Amino acid sequence: QPLIGSAKEKLSQFCHVPVENILNIHDVPNIWHVPLILRNQKAHEAIIKQLNLSRSAGPPELRDWTLMAESYDNLSTSVKIALVGKYTNLSDSYLSVVKVGQESTFKHIKVSFLVTNITSHTRFIIVLNQACQ
Fold first, then answer.
1. C-beta of residue 81 within 8 angstroms of C-beta of residue 132
2. Where do the coiled-coil regions begin and end (predicted)?
3. Under 8 Å between Cβ of 69 and 76
């Protein structure tokens, strides 16, 4: 949820940052939404002002980026992956593998990527099986 005004004011006061430079980047359905959130909060204006780039920089052009975020949100087919590893109970332990899978399935075959974690005490294996439940 977005920060309320009083929370931004408190952060501004204790962190010595102007209120307009405090951004709220909350959980989103997919990573492609983050630049859109930043644009909607006018992050580019704060950066341009701070770096004194007003003569050479303008607002971001995110039309293609918006289409990509919306496309990802509207995927109807998915591939299911069983991720077997020693540390699957730790949320970030195989994050790079998951992110690569999400990126490549979206870009190359236009399907979403679902992961089922299976703990193993011996070795790390990825099992690709569309029928995996």
1. yes
2. none
3. no
pTM for the structure as a whole:
0.66
Q: Can you tell me the mean pLDDT for 66-81? A: 87
CB 114 within 8 A of CB 81: yes
Output the DSSP codes for 13-70: HHHT--GGG-------SSGGGHHHHHHHTTHHHHHHHHTT-TTT------HHHHHHHH
Using one digit for the tens of pLDDT, what is the confidence trace for 96-122? 888 888 888 887 788 888 888 877 765
CB neighbours of 78 closer than 8 A, spacing ≥ 6?
Answer: 111, 112, 113, 114
Q: Indicate the Cα dihedral angle 117, 120, 125, 109, nearest 10°.
A: -10
In the chain, where the domains are located? 5-70, 75-117
State residue 131's pLDDT score: 41
Q: For residue 89, what are the contacts with CB-CB under 8 A and spacing of at least 6? A: 117, 119
DSSP bridge pairs for 128: 81
Tell me the one-letter amino acid at 35.
Answer: P
Can you give the pLDDT at residue 121?
65
Please give the pLDDT value at position 124. 47
